[in-house]
Specification:
Order of helices and strands: EEEEHEHHH
Number of strands: 5
Shape: rod-shaped
Largest sheet: 5 strands, mixed
CATH superfamily of the largest domain: Ribosomal protein S16
Helix content: 40-55%
CATH class of the largest domain: Alpha Beta
Number of helices: 4
């Protein structure tokens, strides 16, 4: 991907910058494709070839934030010029955001618990209305146990009678 960025030149403590088009993977002080102009931050002098800059942006080169500001100063308009605004966030804002997030989490948790309670109530209501298949199986098992006990009692009585006859 092509990038329009600044490349530092000049003496120690006296920077000047070249506005260049380079591959974004290339090192900052490495080779560049084309030089579009230069910028001196001490005198605020900007020299820029606007036509080639627009040509490179049409080809897909994206300007960095600083180069985008320089292009805006030079009254260049293009869709690829996006200036991000950075600002520090105060402790109060961070704490307010944290409180807001915690309140949101608590609200979501309360909604989940309410939904769970409603679901449990619905299940209990359905159980009260219809006996479940498990309950039917339990009742059938109890009945069969009762029947086998009664059959055992009936079988035991004739055995006892036979023993008394002997």
């Amino acid at each position: 991907m092509l990038v329009m960025r600044l490349r530092r030149t000049g003496k120690k403590g006296q920077p000047t910058y070249r506005i260049v088009v380079a591959d974004n993977r290339a090192p900052i002080y490495g080779k560049y494709i084309e030089m579009l102009g230069h910028y001196n931050p001490q005198t605020k002098v900007i020299v820029l070839d606007k036509d080639t800059a627009l040509n490179w942006m049409n080809k897909g080169a994206k300007p960095t934030n600083t180069v985008g500001k320089i292009l805006k100063k030079e009254n260049l308009e293009h869709k690829s010029i996006v200036i991000k605004k950075f600002r520090a966030v105060s402790k109060k804002e961070l704490e307010a955001e944290k409180v807001k997030v915690e309140a949101e989490k608590a609200k979501i948790q309360a909604e989940k618990e309410a939904a769970k309670a409603a679901f449990e109530q619905q299940v209990e209501k359905e159980k009260a209305e219809k006996p479940s298949s498990e309950e039917k199986l339990q009742e059938a098992a109890q009945e069969s146990i009762q029947e086998t006990k009664e059959e055992e009692k009936v079988e035991e009585k004739p055995k006892e009678e036979k023993k008394t006859e002997e």
